[in-house]
Amino acid sequence: MLVSLWPPRYESFMRRLYLCIFLILTAGPAAAATLACGGTVAPGLAYPDVNGHWSGLEIQLCGKLADMLHETPLFTPILQDSDTPGVTKAPSVLFLPQGDIPAGYAPGPVIFNDNQAIMVPAGSPAHDAADLAGDAICVEPGSPEDFNLADYFAAHKLLLHKFVFQETDEMHDAYVAGRCDAITARRTLLIGLRANEDGARRDDVILPDNLGNNPIRVASPASLPAFTALVASTIKESQNVP
């Protein structure tokens, strides 16, 4: 039988001390802080490969900002308005078209100019927008693309027949199903739609017409001016902008 030579209170203290040391030594590393990034999904901006690995300009910029803050980048795709996060008091970054930046976020530099285009199915006789006069064109009503389409056709005195949908996914499905003769959206989205159909639409043609620019900007919480300035300077540095 072992007999302690220490007073009971001292022995109790030492047991607690040893327990604390044991917990510190056996505990895993503390969870690293994360920089939350969200952005539009398109090839070249943020897009997953067949293994689910994301790459593109938005991913690179998110990683660079996280490195500067000694944090881990965490990218979340923003596929529709309901995916856009609310404003937060913590540093976070969004990469969105200028018109989609939510309230509470300060718009920063443009990272990419994404012009609006028109795509037609493989085999379509259309070579440019003029060849689509009177044909059904899928477009999201009330969107910047809707107004640009109307302005472009009016300026060129072309008969416009719009096929409208409230949801972007419904519009894509209608185009894939052949319910409209063409679809208009940001060029990167059309490239993504063409790539997403397991090769079935790889021969679809994006027409040369530019219906309008839609710049994608970086944005950060307006309540964090120092962080917003850091984001802006980092983006400009990466673009070699003075």
Characterise this structure:
By secondary structure, the chain is α/β, with parallel strands linked by helices. It has 6 helices and 11 strands. It has helices at residues 8-26, 57-69, 144-155, 168-176, 187-196, 225-238, and strands at residues 34-39, 47-48, 54-55, 72-77, 92-97, 105-120, 136-139, 161-164, 182-186, 205-206, 212-221. The strands form 2 sheets. Strands 1, 4, 5, 6, 7, 8, 9, 10 and 11 form a 9-stranded mixed β-sheet that branches. The longest helix is centred in the first third of the chain and has 19 residues, at 8-26. The chain is elongated, with a radius of gyration of 26 Å. The protein starts with 7 loop residues before the first helix and ends with a helix.
For this structure, the CATH topology of the largest domain is D-Maltodextrin-Binding Protein, domain 2
Mean pLDDT, all residues: 80
Low-confidence stretches: 1-31
Helix content: 25-40%
Shape: elongated
Number of strands: 11
- Alpha plus pi helix count: 6
Strand content: 25-35%
In CATH, the architecture of the largest domain is 3-Layer(aba) Sandwich
- Look at the structure and give the CATH class of the largest domain: Alpha Beta
**Biggest sheet overview:** 9 strands, mixed
What is the total number of structural domains?
A: 2
**Structural class determined from secondary elements:** alpha/beta
Q: What gyration radius follows from the Cα positions, in whole Å? A: 26 Å
Fourth-tier CATH superfamily name of the largest domain: Periplasmic binding protein-like II
Order of helices and strands: HEEEHEEEEHEHEHEEH
Distance linking N and C termini: 78 Å
